[in-house]
Amino acid sequence: MISWTFICRVDDIPPLGARRVARASGLDVAIFRSADDQIFALLDRCPHKGGPLSQGLVFGTSVACPLHNWTIGLCTGQAAAPDEGCTPKFAVKVDNGAVFLDAAELASHATSATRPLAGPCQRSAAAA
Ligand code: FES
After folding, report:
1. Residue 13 maps to which CATH number?
2. Which terminus of the chain has fewer CB atoms gathered within 10 Å of its CB, N or C?
3. Is this model's pTM higher than 0.85 or not?
């Protein structure tokens, strides 16, 4: 049985925008709101190079990554062709204007995902 955790009200998420949900471990979860008030939740990490999808532009049921403009489907987390990749999605429940996420998923789903490090590459001791 799913243990739903209250996150926020739908109105707390800007239309065509997103909010981030911090977790005890793992990257944040991005919650998106479409123009027609559908709510979606994805790991806040683009499948390309880890861009923060919560800062992207929402259109229809997709988000454009702010870094290199890949289009990611909000229903599936899948990148639109010709790009390839998928970001983990999270179950969402909306009840009477309140947004809920699955507590078990928040605690365990995709907690090992990381972002690429920015800046110059580090050389290994063997290569130096
Ligand atoms: S990191 Fe998202 S398109 Fe490159």
Report:
1. 2.102.10.10
2. N
3. yes
Give the closest residue to 40 by CA, choosing from 91, 107, 97, 85.
91
Distance (Å) from CA 71 to ligand 1 centroid: 9
Pocket (CB within 6 angstroms of ligand 1): 46, 48-51, 65, 67-68, 70
Strand order in the sheet with 92-95: 4-9, 98-102, 92-95
Separation of alpha carbons 41 and 13, rounded Å = 12
Given a contact cutoff of 8 angstroms between Cβ atoms, the answer to whether 88 and 40 are in contact is no
Count of domains forming the chain: 1
- Reported as a single tens digit per residue, the pLDDT across 2-48 is 899 999 999 999 999 999 999 999 999 999 999 999 999 999 999 99
